[in-house]
């Protein structure tokens, strides 16, 4: 296993990885429509049943991956954003195949369901980090994103993303708007002691089938090394799923954003976003 800088042909595998993780993320499912348990209501004179519709599920999954791919591409084009991917060596395939399935919650055993038979080649995880600030080091990381060709490409991708949302069957537009509005309720960075010069962790995703094998820690180590080298802090907005990873790496929680009321039932903290920071050891 090793990490490297992402290439353009990694975008589709990265989108599949993020979409597969979204299906298990209570916060993402606030505005996403699941392709795992999609049903059509079938009414008869004698009963009312929910029948799994594989064609509709396939369409939702395809739209999910396409919109996720556009979102990732837009993110990595922004000034200061760096994307690293986890790549498996041949010997890493001892217990996994290149074709990873998504667990269907309607059964007790994992299985590969048609809409979600995914092939990410040897890429099983990725991370996006962003260098913020105006120092010479920060501007060096931001240089590629400020080039005119990159800015033009970013505009094209952003336009495509906005237009395609109107027919994206995997997204609830109204719920997405509520979700984004809630994000803006976060406390100001200055009030939380978050400096302008820092590394932000925009995303860390590992295929569910390959989680708990240290891949997330390996990706996080890359940005920790950069922060130590440059003498700056780090910041992340983490869901409950990633909280332990960051706590183990020395992050501390400085704030929260509560989405609990946008979810059904008592989710045991799954509806919270944790704002966490990392400081250089004394």
From TrEMBL:
Residues 143-281 form the N-acetyltransferase domain. CDD domains: NAT_SF (cd04301). It holds the Pfam family Acetyltransf_1. It comes from the Eukaryota. GO terms for molecular function: acyltransferase activity, transferring groups other than amino-acyl groups. This is N-acetyltransferase domain-containing protein. It comes from Talaromyces proteolyticus. The lineage of its organism: Eukaryota, Fungi, Dikarya, Ascomycota, Pezizomycotina.
